[in-house]
Design a protein that fits this description.
- The chain is of the alpha/beta class.
- It has two domains: 8-58 and 320-427, Aspartate Aminotransferase, domain 1 (Alpha-Beta Complex); 73-318, Aspartate Aminotransferase, domain 2, CATH 3.40.640.10.
- It is built from 15 helices and 19 strands.
- It has helices at 8-15, 48-51, 60-70, 83-97, 109-126, 150-155, 159-162, 180-186, 210-223, 303-318, 321-335, 360-363, 367-370, 376-386, 409-427; strands at 27-31, 34-37, 42-45, 101-106, 137-141, 172-175, 191-196, 199-200, 206-207, 226-230, 258-261, 272-277, 280-281, 284-285, 344-350, 353-358, 389-390, 392-393, 398-401.
- It has a seven-stranded mixed β-sheet with strand order 4-12-11-10-7-5-6, sandwiched between helices. The chain has a four-stranded mixed β-sheet with strand order 1-2-3-17. Strands 15-16-19-18 form a four-stranded antiparallel β-sheet.
- The longest helix has 19 residues, at 409-427.
Length: 428
């Protein structure tokens, strides 16, 4: 029974598992780039559900398609063929990727990554090492994040994510991101794939160099490995291109063997997706090796999820939101002089996936920080939220901006002003 007198925080403390480090904010309404709490306070939401709300809160077109589709068919088994799932796959293959392939749908980024991990395992069985032994090892990178499932966690290159859950799933090797030599030395007869985020999100907004990406592609072609791109956070317009890796100059022509998506592909509605290339491998197509019974998802690609995702992707493409993202990135970079803000040391990233690096040495001069018991990123996120700007940590010393792809210039100006006023005044 709902008791309006009972505080939300008390309900959470009593009934919700404490697996999230939650901020003391109770949202009740969202509109575009704005979020409102239970007290009527207004916030600029540059967290965006952590790169989820591609079109902002309560987007009218999304509300319309949710209403329309839910009134006809919400869910049916994947034993059947709802047309909208096929239409969604078609737009992903032909317009998002632009290369022959096939799609699998699930419910989250972790599930999507589990899908491409299983794909690589099956591929390693069908395309074994010269010794005849199946290939199982996937090369991953330090700082990466691929989810919190058993496979995703093992693939993730962050000890804080993996700690306390051993023994971990075998078959993953982690090397330094952007280190070509380390990558080359890591390849063995057992290696079957390379899995990476072209722009690492949770690891601190780390952008792959073009040299590194090209070497990944080269090694995969020469060694008959799969090139797997995790686009869960950086994909579908977030970086100013339909695919995150394409925002890196010189990487436009790279086509991986498989791609995982979630977050922004549904604009707030839960859906994950995998694209698998239709390239010929010996006597079979790669996109066909997950045969009936090999993989599945009860709710994956439901009519409701597919209708929403299709609408979101079409909106991103048809309204050319990638151009808006690129233009705003240029404006932000021109408007923020890091030297003017003592508590920041750098800004990095692409498009509207931006990381502001905190000057920890400067921050440690503040007594309020020293007694807070918080990490630098949590401390700064809390400071900004008190002044009406919602951001999200990316590791211990980076905060992220992940606003909607259709955010307006005036809202970006306001966010910049809050950043400057908050962080400059704090140090003065």
């Amino acid at each position: 029974m709902n008791n309006s007198e009972e505080k939300t925080a008390d309900i959470y403390n009593k009934y919700i598992v404490p697996n999230y480090g939650r901020f003391p904010l109770v949202p009740v309404k969202g509109e575009g780039s704005l979020l409102f709490d239970e007290h009527g306070n207004r916030y600029l939401d540059f967290t965006g559900g952590i790169a989820v709300n591609s079109l902002g809160h309560s987007n009218k077109i999304m509300v319309e398609v949710l209403t329309k589709q839910s009134s006809t068919l919400i869910h049916c088994s994947n034993l059947y063929q709802p047309r909208i799932q096929g239409d969604l796959a078609k737009v992903i293959v032909e317009e998002v990727v632009g290369s022959p392939g096939k799609c699998f749908f699930c419910n989250s980024g972790a599930e999507a990554n589990e899908g491409i991990i299983k794909l690589s395992r099956r591929y390693g069985e069908m395309s074994p090492a010269p010794s005849g032994q199946p290939r199982r090892e996937i090369i991953c990178f330090k700082g990466s994040f691929h989810g919190r499932t058993t496979g995703g966690m093992a693939a993730t290159g962050q000890e804080k994510i993996r700690s306390g859950f051993g023994p971990l799933m075998e078959g993953f090797k982690h090397v330094d991101f952007n280190d070509v030599s380390a990558l080359q030395n890591a390849i063995t007869e057992d290696t079957v794939a390379i899995l990476l985020e072209a722009i690492q999100g949770e690891g601190g907004i780390n952008v792959a160099s073009i040299e590194f990406l090209l070497e990944c592609q080269k090694i995969c072609k020469e060694q008959n490995l799969l090139l797997l791109f995790d686009e869960v956070q950086c994909g579908v317009g977030r970086c100013g291109t339909l695919n995150g890796w394409q925002s890196i100059e010189g990487a436009e022509g790279i086509i991986p063997d498989a791609i995982s998506w979630a977050k922004g592909i549904g604009g707030g509605f839960p859906i994950g997706a995998v694209w698998i290339s239709s390239k010929k491998v010996r006597d079979f197509n790669l996109s066909d090796i997950l045969a009936p019974g090999s993989h599945g998802s009860t709710f994956g690609g439901s009519p409701l999820a597919s209708a929403v995702s299709y609408t979101v992707i079409r909106k991103i493409i048809d309204d050319n939101l990638c151009e808006n993202v690129r233009n705003l990135n240029e404006f932000i970079m021109d408007s923020i002089e890091i030297d003017e803000i003592p508590l920041l040391s750098d800004i990095r990233g692409v498009g509207l996936m931006l990381g502001f690096v905190i000057d920890v040495e400067e921050l440690e001069k503040l007594e309020s920080f020293r007694i807070s018991g918080q990490s630098p990123s949590i401390y700064i996120v809390n400071l900004l939220s008190k002044n009406g700007l919602l951001t999200v940590p990316a590791g211990a010393d980076v905060i992220r901006w992940l606003p909607p792809l259709n955010v307006g210039k005036n809202e970006v100006k306001e966010a910049i002003k809050i950043m400057k006023v908050t962080l400059i005044n704090k140090i003065i």
